[in-house]
Amino acid sequence: MKKFFAFAIVVLTVLGTASCRKNNLSGEKEVLDIVGVWELSAIDITKAATLGDETVNVYVDFAPDNSFTLYQLLGEGRYSVYTGSWTLSGDYLFGNYSDGSNWASSYTITVSKVALVLTTSDGSQITTYRRIDEVPASVFENIKY
Amino acid sequence: MKMKQYRILGVLAAASLMLASCADRVAPEKGTVVRDAHSFVSAKIVNTSVNASASELMVQVGANTRENIMSLEAVPGVASVEPLFFHTPGKEEMEARFGLDRWMLVSVAGGKSVEAVAESIAGLDKVEKVEFSHLISRGGELHVASCDVPGPVTKAVDYPFDDPYLVDQWHYINNGDVRAGAGARIGADINVKDAWSLCAGDPDIIVGVIDEGIKWNHPDLADNMWVNEAEFNGTEGVDDDGNGLVDDIYGYNFALRDTTITYTSGIHGTHCAGTIAAVNNNGIGVCGVAGGTGKGDGCRLMSAQAAYKGSFPMAGTLRAVKYAADNGAAVINCSYGYSGDDITSDSQYATNYPAELAIYEYFENTPNDVTDGGICVFSAGNDGLDHCEYPAGYYKFISVGALASDYLPAYYSSYGPGTSIFAPGGEVQSGNAYGEVLSTVVPEISNGDEYAFAQGTSMSAPHMTGVVALGLSYAKKLGKKYTRDEFKSLLLTSTNSIDDLLVGTRTSYGGTKQLYKYRGGTGAGAIDVWKLFMNIEGTPCLEAIQGETNFVDLEEYFGGNASSLTYLGVEISDRDKASLGLEEDPVIQYGRLKITPTKYGSAKFVIRAVNGGTEIGGVKEGGMEISRTVSVICRPVVSKNGGWL
């Protein structure tokens, strides 16, 4: 879905470049960790098809037990909540929703203390998320049940 | 009141429809009639004369007796009285159950006021209801454009039939050819290609086309025409089957009350018929959804002619529906409706149009080989409203909105409450017609063309009607039977969501639209024939994305512990591998099905696993082998639940 449009959203300060590296004295591959709460901060679509006038708000909480909760608001209305499971294998992230649907794409990721960047498997879309402490209360007050 | 003819021409229907307001409706004591300057205050008169015939009325009497008919005939201004519905021998019980035997068609004498006659009739004790005969019109927008030499065959697609124009029917197999539109998407079709290899029709499934006459001798329709055997083999000029009609071989012309089906009065019926069941794989012309495989196995088309030159006289339309019911039709295609906002609620429809509702219910309670009642399919309307137009919008009918070749709602299509589902209806592109729906037309009035493009919810409804017929054919093939409502549920849950595409704007011939407005307004979504077949079989469908390595969750097949079972392997036929363009067999990895389709298509294969152990027992204590047949659909237009990730 998101491969087909670009949005006018306020791009928060681009964050995170070099991640804090652990000591790799042994030369082992670094284990990436995306557990935590993230807020969508930027979308870069190189294959935009149509431009819309909606805004997008997304929060995702990747839990340590490989479940996730996703809060999204596209345009007007209330937040929709999705849950499911995620798997990270090296820098390759994929997942399913609880209803069995696949994610729209699998992703190659980079992650740091402050930012998570997801690149779709066809390379056409890069989304950036900034790390936050918790999903804001304003989201919970505005959920569509 | 002068009768005005209203012809719907989609967005061009700017003809000002000044609807006089419905007056206050006070229910007086029974039998009394009170009149004021503009309205008719009688509980028995169920609608108004606005947009209605000035020369006839439909009247329901308490009992079908000679005495009651005579009292109607005696009312000043009445020219004649006849039964509204033709009686069919053997159908007495059903006709009585739905009150059809008590409806009369009253002709008003020239120069007399239909309102005055209605009032007088309503004053009679034995009269229960008086209904003005409302005008209906067709829902198609005919940007009819002739069809050129068939387009080049794209090697990426294996076309299953040899009909030369199948390559131009994106609505069956969309390969993203931009001739069908700049935004044409691979897979934006009804997903019938692989289903056709399982079943493409059954001559015992009959479809009633309630429309202009079908050109029954069209080379690409003739072999799929329903034939009334008794009349065909009988004597000309004789009512061989005793149904009150003479020589009704392929149907009957209820619009003109005549034996001769007139197809040169308009192409609408012929075009709809071709979408439903043009003959497949006969080396000529086009394909139809349920047109068979070229071996005489297509569904049959019945020409229950209700329209003449674009207008559907009410009495004729109702009679056509009864004819379809009484002669074995399992589904009817109704690409017609009322203009714009004439009716805005189900209760208003039921109150104002009791004769109509009675006959559609009669059809829905007439059993066939597969279901215990027929199915009515209507076009949703071309006025681009945010709610379905009527009668389509009535909650019991399947109403069909229109998609364009980019899998998005066509600009003219109505949507929202009352809309059941969407199917291709086509959309004109600037400069060419390939974005519309290609089907059979009438050469006598189409500059000699036998095939042409047209757009409208008039075209989306026959896609759905063809799907109903095809689904019934497959169910029959598998020996399955359903109640009518069970089958409707299968139909209306065999879909792909387009909600995740409904973002941003879309610019087309009809201007620029904000797509989020359609979200939640497309009913079940876009019809998917493969999913219908899998639902009929009881085989759940998984979805995979083309060009990617998918890890598909198997819980639907192997239960909650699917991801931790030991799997023994996957068995897949060469045909199914080829259909998804798999370069290697699917395997199970991470407890999921790993599959990398490179083509869009649908396939079935077997997955084997061990239950109750990590290896099969028999010697050591171990588990038993279990297996499931799995169905996978691969479409670049992946239907999801709208989730962001």
Give the SSE layout.
The complex is a heterodimer of chains A (145) and B (645).
Chain A: E1 5-6, E2 36-45, E3 50-51, E4 56-62, E5 67-74, E6 80-89, E7 92-97, E8 107-111, E9 115-120, E10 125-132, H1 137-140
Parallel strand pairs in A: 1-3
Antiparallel strand pairs in A: 2-4, 2-10, 4-5, 5-6, 6-7, 7-8, 8-9, 9-10
Chain B: E1 34-35, E2 40-41, E3 52-61, H1 66-73, E4 78-83, H2 92-97, E5 103-108, H3 114-122, E6 127-134, E7 136-138, E8 140-146, E9 206-211, H4 229-232, E10 251-253, H5 268-277, E11 300-305, E12 311-312, H6 314-326, E13 329-334, E14 336-337, H7 346-352, H8 354-364, E15 375-379, E16 398-403, E17 421-424, E18 437-440, E19 451-456, H9 457-477, H10 484-491, E20 495-496, E21 505-508, E22 511-514, E23 526-527, H11 529-537, E24 541-544, E25 550-552, H12 555-558, E26 566-571, H13 574-580, E27 587-589, E28 592-595, E29 601-611, E30 624-634
Parallel strand pairs in B: 9-11, 9-13, 10-11, 13-15, 15-16, 16-17, 24-30
Antiparallel strand pairs in B: 1-2, 3-5, 3-6, 4-5, 7-12, 7-14, 8-19, 18-19, 20-23, 21-22, 25-28, 26-29, 27-28, 29-30
Helix pairs in contact in B: 5-9, 6-8, 9-11
The CATH top-level class label of chain A: Mainly Beta
Note the main sheet of chain A.
Answer: 8 strands, antiparallel, barrel
Q: Helical percent range of chain A?
A: under 10%
> In CATH terms, what is the architecture of chain A?
Beta Barrel
Largest interface: A-B, 37 and 31 residues
Give a quick rundown of the structure.
The complex is a heterodimer of chains A (145) and B (645). Chain A is mainly beta and 145 residues long.
Can you offer a commentary on this structure?
Chain A is globular. Chain A has one domain (2-140): Lipocalin (Beta Barrel). Chain A contains one helix and ten strands. Helix content of chain A is 3%, strand content 44%. Chain A has 145 residues and is mainly beta. Chain B has 13 helices and 30 strands. Chain B has a seven-stranded parallel β-sheet with strand order 10-11-9-13-15-16-17, sandwiched between helices. Chain B starts with 33 loop residues before the first strand and ends in an 11-residue tail after the last strand. Chain A binds chain B through residues 1-2, 4-5, 40, 49-54, 56, 58, 60, 70, 72, 74-76, 80, 82, 84, 87, 94-97, 99-106, 121-122, and chain B through 183, 500-501, 503-506, 514-516, 542-545, 547-553, 555-556, 590, 638, 640-645.
